[in-house]
Amino acid sequence: METTAAPFSSVVPSRQNISSSIRVASPTSLFLSRKNPGKFKYPRSLSVRASSTSDSVVTLLDYGAGNVRSIRNALRHLGFSIKDVQTPGDILNADRLIFPGVGAFAPAMDVLNKTGMAEALCTYIENDRPFLGICLGLQLLFESSEENGPVKGLGVIPGIVGRFDSSAGIRVPHIGWNALQVGKDSEILDDVGNRHVYFVHSYRAIPSNENKEWISSTCNYGDSFISSIRRGNVHAVQFHPEKSGEVGLSVLRRFLHPKLPATQKPMEGKASKLAKRVIACLDVRSNDKGDLVVTKGDQYDVREQSNENEVRNLGKPVDLAGQYYKDGADEISFLNITGFRDFPLGDLPMIQVLRHTSKNVFVPLTVGGGIRDFTDASGRYYSSLEVAAEYFRSGADKISIGSDAVYAAEEFVKSGAKTGKSSLEQISRVYGNQAVVVSIDPRRVYVNHPDDVPYKVIRVANPGPNGEEYAWYQCTVSGGREGRPIGAYELAKAVEELGAGEILLNCIDCDGQGKGFDIDLVKLISDSVGIPVIASSGAGTPGHFSEVFEKTNASAALAAGIFHRKEVPIQSVKEHLREEGIEVRI
Question: Which residues bind substrate (predicted)?
Fold first, then answer.
């Protein structure tokens, strides 16, 4: 899907028209040389304002890629209304401007250049107007990016945005809750304290002598990178405040109310590095009455073992998601396990679940189920990009692909060539691999000897029913109902190559058993790929979480039933992990 400039005017005003449409004091002294980006200094006391508008209005630059519903909901939660940018003049007349950049660097710059937004943004920033860039909204301020490039940026700040170096032993993308090293005069970070904030990105800018005067905080991940900048009224952050819970809301509040008195004591915390994540999963489907409910399977069987054989009902999706957010879940994952069998975009109840959840839940939301190319009964074709786009517009931060990724991986393993046509490849190319999770549903198959099958075989800790010491993990599709001729190891390696940014690793054998994660499987996959792996299936006690983090390289652990049935609260899991010396977000 080509990123278009539909929301904006096609008229690109000249630099003269842009400059004359705003009244500033001594604009020449503030002008930023394109040959010497970042060499000027803003007077700290200068604050130029556009034509008077309501103090409760925020201008939002949404160029049409990814999930900006979350930042909209966060702003409304804080009591602000939103004015969307339609023309470059809307930027120049803004009292305060937020640019929540999402997706890839090149498509974003293409839209900004074609619509005249690039020039307007530079003028706005040069005149020290209140600005907050988020994630890509920070990266675009630099001179260029190596992402599918080099690609020229806005050139406001000296430096090149480069990819994280995975050879340093880190997983790329950088996904999760990490700590900040906050410098002086950060202003909008004053209330963060020693708390984690949420990152999701594969590229970053490195501190240098040329850009050091811009830097307000750094973060360590393999090396030190720029996590926020500030000069005068201009701010930008690499993390997502709208996805960083109450801490993130404090950052937005500080930007929107710069005259707020300093907090006597910032929020307490012990953040020092990337935290292990605890994720709550909600399997969502319609019950026999047509109501959308959260359910939970026993080895993927979601029906009660009773005469009625009804779908197991564990609560309402929006209510449970809101409760898990309050309980401290680091992410919430929705899996629509039946709704997309006929028509993905027709599954309006699930879309509504996302929209309502994102109004009050300010941590990342992942959604999966039926994300694939589709032709409806009338013959109209819908690409997987259209399906994913609807999810993103409705509040999803990441989408999870299951069966369609298995088929793509099988073809890739067979041919050794990428087609670029699979849903996995298309979505990761447009939205970035950090927005794509591949969900793997394997089943353990015991064998007597490693050479018995043409797949990766490992020696298992617990022998099989006939004393077998070895096993391979056969991938399945259609909710575990159909086995495929590919192993979990081969699938994981293939989808990483095809553009997956994260793997959700389930295990049919352990699902609903409450006896712990399949450590053999999680270790196999997390040791084999360079992207984050989420361990899933089998959690029954807090000790199961510490076990999987201590014995494998899993970046996160996910549970469902124990949270739904209130057998183990999320905070109990986190308290146990802290006691075991494992860093988690408080």
Answer: 370, 506
Catalytic residue among 135, 219, 475, 507: 135
* Angle of helix 348-357 versus helix 384-394 axis, rounded to 10: 40
Q: Pull the structure tokens for residue 77.
A: 């939660």
User: Tens of pLDDT along 139-157?
Assistant: 999 999 999 889 999 999 9
Helix, coil or strand: residue 532: coil
Map residue 56 onto helix, strand or coil.
coil
**Distance from C-alpha of 535 to C-alpha of 537, rounded to nearest angstrom:** 7
- Set 441, 490, 518, 547: catalytic member: 441
Task: State pTM to two decimals.
Answer: 0.86
Selected catalytic residue, list 174, 196, 235, 240:
240
All domains of the chain in start order, with CATH: 57-256 (3.40.50.880), 276-298+312-440+479-580 (3.20.20.70)
Which pLDDT tens digit goes with each residue over 296-316? 444 444 444 445 445 344 468
* Element holding 482 (H helix, E strand): strand 482-487
Residues flagged as binding site for substrate: 370, 506
Phi, psi of 259 (to 5 degrees): -95, 10
Binding residue positions for L-glutamine: 135
Please pick, among 242, 347, 425, 520, the residue that the annotation labels catalytic.
Answer: 242
What's the token pair of residue 373?
A: 């190319």
Whether residue 196 lies in the annotated active site: no
Which residue of the set 110, 119, 143, 283 is catalytic? 283
- Yes or no: say if 238 and 226 are a contact pair by the CB < 8 Å rule: yes
What residue type is assigned to position 323 of the chain?
A: Q
Burial class (CB in 10 A: 0-12, 13-18, 19+), 290: exposed
What is the helix (H) or strand (E) element at residue 30, kind and residue range?
A: helix 27-30
* SS3 label, residue 40: coil
Low pLDDT (below 70) residues in the chain: 1-54, 65-66, 262-269, 285-293, 295-315, 337-348
The Cα 142–Cα 37 span in angstroms is: 9
Nearest CA among 153, 119, 156, 141 for reference residue 12: 119
Q: Which residue has tokens 């963060």?
A: 192
Active site residue 441: yes
Q: Letter for the amino acid at 451?
A: D
Binding annotation: 135, 370, 506
